Amino acid sequence: RTSRCHDVPWLSQNTNGEHFVANNRRNCAQGTCLSSNVCLRLLPSSRKNCMNENELDETYKKLIPTGRSVVGILSFPESMSADEINTCNHVKRFVKELTPEKLRRFLRFCTGSDLMVVDTITVNFVNVVGLARRPVAHTCSCLLELSKIFNSFPQFCSEFNSVLESNYWEMDII
Fold first, then answer.
1. What are phi and psi of 134, to 5 degrees?
2. 117 and 111 in contact (C-beta within 8 Å)?
3. What's the CA gap between 121 and 166, in Å, rounded?
4. How far apart are CA 25 and CA 171, in angstroms?
5. How many CA atoms does the CB half-sphere of 138 hold within 13 Å?
6. What is the pLDDT of residues 43-85, one digit of tens each?
7. Backbone angles phi, psi at 157, to 5 degrees
8. Which residue spans within the chain are E strands per DSSP?
């Protein structure tokens, strides 16, 4: 029976910048055995492009949403009516004023993730009034549908906050 190394229970890097995989295998035929149950095998040079800890931290920091970064990915129609422009301004102001927790909820509502993992959230305006007027998000396509008409910014905030603060979001595939 021949034993051989198997990949990736965990990855480490030596002082020369070479990447090793530690494997829990006895009597390893390849690599450097440190003890009877741990073997290190040098990875091919193509795997040297792994991120170091600082690069990983920087990448993660870019994923954390801020009001400014979320407003930056909102995409509105090129031509809008006066009511749509007004609602567009409400959305931008609303997002900029959200707490970090509510900003994560806003992103989760629009994209399905509470991190900045998309390039664009498309905003479309629809003709709905009364009880049917509520924000609707399609997370697969990162599409946010909003009513064209809101009488005031506080009214917009109230209606959007009621969605974000609810403990139940129906997520169906149709």
1. -160, 155
2. yes
3. 21
4. 44
5. 10
6. 555 445 677 788 888 888 889 999 999 999 999 999 999 999 9
7. -60, -45
8. 10-13, 19-23, 32-33, 39-42, 74-75, 121-126, 136-138, 143-147
